[in-house]
Specification:
The protein is of the alpha+beta class. It folds into 2 domains: 199 residues, 2-Layer Sandwich (Fructose-1,6-Bisphosphatase, Chain A, domain 1); 126 residues, 3-Layer(aba) Sandwich (D-Maltodextrin-Binding Protein, domain 2), CATH 3.40.190.80. The protein is 30% helix and 22% strand. The protein is built from 9 helices and 15 strands. Strands 4-3-5-6-7-8-9-10 form an 8-stranded mixed β-sheet, sandwiched between helices. Strands 12-11-13-15-14 form a 5-stranded mixed β-sheet, with helices on both faces. Strands 1-2 form a two-stranded antiparallel ribbon. Helix 6 packs across helix 9. It is globular and about 60 Å long. The model has no long low-confidence stretch (mean pLDDT 91).
Length: 346
């Protein structure tokens, strides 16, 4: 009987655990604590994936009836995802403080015997309103060291600029479930093989294209965009085949899904200030900063429209920020239009 060569093929892939062990001395050269933290995050990701894949069958749609700190109706899956990540990080003992979109205050991990020295800020399930219509959603996480000048795990120790991140990543629950992360040494993507319950290294050393043919924005907010952005959008829609225009709009209302497609194929995601969200809609600490770390490590850019996102000094855990993120040349063009340096005849 022929051996099942699928198993042979699967065996050819490096698992996330093997990859983490190989790389563990890049972040935490002494104890392997960072490796164990990443393992804890991957365990929670597998559990959330398990819930997600059953969502169509059991009643995990709908809302809990709670209103979360953002004033948004909390989806059942938001609460489940939050619970799984908090439980995995508390059990793992490497994390001393969690900041979550689903919780108004930072959550200290008071595990008696833990010497956890990592802070994890996260959106346990971004875009959850898409779940019941089967659109991909994601988890986003950002990792910091507990600062030496703030040895107590409090909110102040979490409010660090994005340039201080020691790790960042996302989990995309899509046609397959992927975990993509960076520790500052490039970006690597792992695809979950449910038949063996392992994340396999399927996308080593991800690099994003210099430019792309897609842009992502909710044009329903057009009236509230500043003039430079309105001109930029019209410029992208002009029929100039010699300069690859018009571009295509791809916007599915799920940041992680839009971001991942643009990362892989080239593109620009924009969520600017609007009348409804004057500071932008996305949160600096656990959405913009982690994906900014990833995109920069893949050769891309992430801007508030005026400055580098990762240099913004935070003052609140849930603060929002305008986001222009993706292929470097596309972000630079957006910034130039916003500065008034480019116009429709450019
Ligand atoms: P709008 C989901 O709520 C989210 O935070 C992102 O995932 C998504 O890109 C954006 O908001 C969608 O917002 O205002 O276009 O519906």
């Amino acid at each position: 009987m022929q051996p099942d060569n699928r198993l042979e093929e699967i065996g050819a892939f490096k698992t996330l655990e093997q990859f983490i062990i190989e790389r563990q001395f890049s972040v935490d050269s002494s104890t392997g604590a960072f490796s164990r933290l990443l393992r804890d995050i991957s365990v929670a990701a597998k559990l959330v994936n398990w819930h997600m894949r059953r969502a169509g069958i059991i009643d995990v749609f709908g809302s809990t009836g709670e209103i979360n700190v953002q004033g948004e109706v909390q989806a059942v899956m938001d609460a489940l995802a939050h619970k799984e990540f908090v439980r995995a990080l508390r059990r793992g003992g490497e994390c001393c403080l969690i900041g979550s979109e689903e919780h108004s205050e930072a959550i200290p991990m008071k595990a008696s015997d833990s010497e956890g020295k990592y802070i994890v800020l996260m959106d346990p399930l971004d875009g959850s309103s898409n779940i019941e219509v089967n659109v991909s959603v994601g988890t986003i996480f950002s990792i910091y060291h507990l600062p030496e000048d703030h040895p107590e795990p409090t909110l102040e120790s979490a409010l660090q600029p994005g340039v201080n991140q020691v790790g960042a990543g996302y989990v995309l629950y899509g046609s397959s479930t992927m975990l993509v992360y960076t520790t500052g040494e490039g970006v690597n993507g792992f695809t979950l093989d449910p038949s063996i319950g392992e994340f396999l290294l399927t996308h080593p050393d991800i690099r994003t294209p210099e430019t792309g043919s897609m842009y992502s924005i909710n044009e329903g907010n057009y009236e509230s965009f500043e003039i430079g952005l309105k001109k930029h959008i019209k410029w992208m829609q002009q029929e100039r085949s010699d300069s690859g225009r018009p571009l295509s709009t791809r916007y599915i209302g799920s940041f992680v899904a839009d971001f991942h497609r643009n990362l892989m194929k080239g593109g620009l995601y924009m969520y600017p200030a609007t009348h409804k969200n004057p500071a932008g809609k996305l949160r600096l600490m656990y959405e913009a900063n982690p994906l900014a770390f990833i995109v920069e490590q893949a050769g891309g850019k992430a801007s508030t429209g005026i400055r580098r996102i990762m240099e913004v000094e935070p003052d609140k855990l849930h603060q929002r920020i305008p986001v222009y993120i993706g292929s470097p040349k596309m972000v630079e063009t957006a910034e130039a239009f916003l500065r008034g340096e480019l116009d429709l005849d450019s």
